Amino acid sequence: MHEILGPDLLVFSKYDKEKFKNGLDFIGINHYTSYYVKDCIFSACDQGKGSSKTEGFALTSAQMNDKSIGEPTALAWFYVHPQGMENIVTYIKDRYNNIPMFITENGFGTSESSYPTTEYELNDVKRVEYLSSYLDSLATAIRKGADVKGYFVWSILDNFEWNHGYSIRFGLHHVDFATLNRTPRGSAFWYKNFISEHKNLAGISYAQV
């Protein structure tokens, strides 16, 4: 890492090292989607643009051999790939000696109308399918020994997305940004029932953020 990143790599002081000597309390994981990744240091490929130097050393793509990694969504970078949840949790379990983990963000964004007028617009079937499949994948990782302590769905309400403003909606509850009226979507009722039915599953706690 020092050879590749040089001065961009964080340097820990003696105080930092002493503080971390006893290990971490937990690891937080934000997970939404997955990509195919190709190493551009030791493989022949064009380096990815990336927003940081580290991302520039790899080429990421949702396509391989003309096949998509998963179903596309309203966001260009976002593909549905439930297996990614088990993969990332299992990797961290194995790499970091199964330090307790929290899924700090996981959710599904849509570009629905700002003013839903039909039951269909509030019946967000795709979000329910996404959450159900990703939670099932998470449960598989837990059954295989991953020490996952909690799961936070993103998000309880529609909010401001950094790259898309108010045009993309992740909320289990629809927000009318003109009046601030909040209306539960179908996913809100589904998630409430899910928590009720699985509240004692492997000691994991569920919440909305």
From TrEMBL:
Active site feature: E105
An example Gene Ontology molecular-function term: hydrolase activity, hydrolyzing O-glycosyl compounds
PROSITE patterns to which the protein is assigned, alphabetical: GLYCOSYL_HYDROL_F1_1
UniProt superkingdom: Eukaryota
InterPro entries, sorted: GH, Glyco_hydro_1, Glyco_hydro_1_AS
Gene3D superfamilies, A to Z: Glycosidases
GO biological process terms, semicolon-separated: carbohydrate metabolic process
Similarity comment: family membership: Belongs to the glycosyl hydrolase 1 family.
Protein name: Beta-glucosidase
Organism: Medicago truncatula (Barrel medic)
